[in-house]
Specification:
Layout lengths: L1 H27 L15 H4 L1
Length: about 50
């Protein structure tokens, strides 16, 4: 039972931290990190 309570509290804390980070990032005008992680397809003919 204690393990379940710890897991719920940890999950809630992580979600709350992510939401606070998103709000602060928007308020401070920090750039989005999501746009840098796009996957670019590679042409197999160009690899040889």
């Amino acid at each position: 039972m204690r393990l379940l309570v710890n897991a719920i509290i940890t999950g809630f804390g992580l979600k709350l931290g992510a939401d606070i980070y998103k709000a602060v990032k928007k308020k401070l005008g920090l750039p989005d990190d999501d746009s840098d992680n796009k996957v670019v397809p590679v042409d197999p003919a160009a690899q040889s």
